[in-house]
Amino acid sequence: MEPFRRLEAIACPLPLASVDTDQIIPARFMKTPRSEGYGRFLLHDLRHDAEGRPTGALSLDDPTRAGARILVARRNFGAGSSREAAVYALVDYGIRCVIAPSFGDIFAANAANNGLLPAAVAEEDAERLLLALESGLAGLVVDLEAERIEGAGEAIAFSVDPVVRTKLLNGWDDLDLTLSRADAIAAFTAADAERRPWARPRG
Amino acid sequence: MPYPRSAPRTLFEKVWDQHVVASRDDGPDLLFIDRHLVHEGSHHAFAKLREKGLPVARPDLTFGVADHYVPTRNRSGGLADAGVRRMVDQLSENARAHGIRLFGLDDPRQGIVHVVGPEQGLTLPGLTIVCGDSHTSTHGAFGAMAFGIGASDVAHVLATQTLWQKRPRRMRIAFEGELMPGVGAKDMALSWIARLGADGARGHAIEYAGSAVRALSMEGRLTLCNLSIEGGGRLGMIAPDETTIRYLEGRPFAPTGDLFARAAEDWLALASDGSAAFDREIVLAAGEIAPVVTWGTSPEDALPITGETPDPGRMADEGRAAHAREALAYMGLVPGRPLTEIAVDRVFIGSCTNSRIEDLRAAAAVLAGRKARVPGLVSPGSSLVKRQAEEEGLDRIFVEAGLEWVESGCSMCVGMNGDIVAPGERCASTTNRNFKGRQGPGARTHLMSPAMVAAAAIEGRLADARPYLEGRI
Lengths: 203, 473
Fold this sequence. Notes:
The structure holds two protein chains of two kinds. Chain A is of the alpha/beta class. Chain A has helices at 21-24, 44-47, 85-93, 105-112, 123-134, 162-170, 174-179, 182-195, and strands at residues 6-14, 70-73, 97-100, 117-120, 139-143, 148-150, 156-157. In chain A, 33% of the residues lie in helices and 15% in strands. A seven-stranded mixed beta sheet of chain A has the order 4-3-2-1-5-6-7. By secondary structure, chain B is an alpha/beta fold. Chain B has two domains: 11-167, Aconitase, domain 3; 294-469, Aconitase, domain 3, CATH 3.30.499.10. Chain B is 32% helix and 16% strand. At the A-B interface, helix 4, helix 6, helix 7 and helix 8 of A face helix 2, helix 3, helix 5, helix 10 and helix 11 of B.
């Protein structure tokens, strides 16, 4: 995974609360293999009418925001289902950072596993950013090392789980780290069979 | 290894501590996973495994269930929809290739993964259980630590049977007192979510406690824990007790004989110690809970059926008012009208939230001898629940009322298997999410208990189930 340190990019305001993963990617698109790309499904039903025509309702479709890599939203972004496809849709579209007052726990974990930064800011700071972007501000700078957002007047602090921060800064993949611990897993398994002999499924 | 410990601990901490394989200085623990449940949607994870050339570490602890994409009608003779067929076939192929036991489309035990696990005794107290589905929290009803994960983590568990996790904070939600007749676990869950918000339990492991929780059957406890994620909780748990142990005895994959006795002793010892500390505690009066329905597009948009649609103009918080305005517009509702005036187009009874035998009995108790004014679907939680319901004659009650009795699967809850609500249509539903478009593009969902859905079917509008249950429960 590509390490995430500092991102200077076009940002899109998404002034909605509880943008759940069903909205980020409607379920009917998830049969698609990832190799085909998920970017075109991002927030599909908020951006298209019933006939599939773009409505231009979201700033994502504003031509002056083309190439955006940052999204700013209201509280509880990514609530709901565990579908990692929601993160694929964001990442394949080009988004590398979502700024919001809070995130669904599973979404935040999935984001970290795909190099997407969930940056949590105070509710009033999210409102400030939304207002600045809606008033014409084009881009933001997200500095993960300093945990700071610049570009909308005074710098804004954000928070991120320290474990997620380390993972993103280094571009680590959990799986590679764990495979080197095979001995510890084997030792645990042996001891556990003594401690909890009932824990294995019968049959 | 932090096991065993002597300081007072919560149920959650006891189970967590028993699973720590390794700890990292910066916080997370590597947890051993006792059960891994996979479904059609797990294809991304199997693809990742292939990419890395890794085998499944513990096929003996991995179980496959076909539920999300399976149609609930016309299953024999091949699946008509090519996309759906590919999803179901892919799961069978991955299960076969890796030696994973599969409850596939033709298995008499097939059903929704969170119904099948408990039913088969795969779910046991004190286990860690993960699945690529947020409603995995359901299994916490047994005192298991169960949570949903994304595809990368599914691949991680397939390859290592472990997962790095940071310990969530501890939260206790206690329901004290006795529920009124006609009020159940669904009403309890929607009530706390309405009070604390859809992100109210974010970052927390919830323990449900109190006399009203202890009085719940396993079915009710499963419903309560199922909805933990709708309040933002990482997981929900209930301490194992005699109700738990009675349910598990004789289940196909549960231990037997002396091993079961030994297990039961271990399970009962998992309860939180009297002096154990929680980071957050909430107490609710069970007797004050009325049957609840949702009016908006988030599970926190819930009110007693005796109430009115909210008025955004009277909300102090601008963010919440904006959400309420937007939700009412999507739902086609106006502020300040009685909820019982809202006419529905169809009903749905099913999903991992409310499709177990007791749910079907509750809906049938309302519907027996009565007719539905609107069409609807009843999809039992598993093929075994379906058989039991038919033995009890519940299917006839639904069919005579005018509802459709179909096969088991995630059905009209997920909008990915052919069962959908048409754009603009309003559905009274026993499911877990009233998100925009969840039941199909443009669909309007009102969440409620099975008895309340049955009452809505009879009146063709949202209705209080209690009068219909008089003399019947």
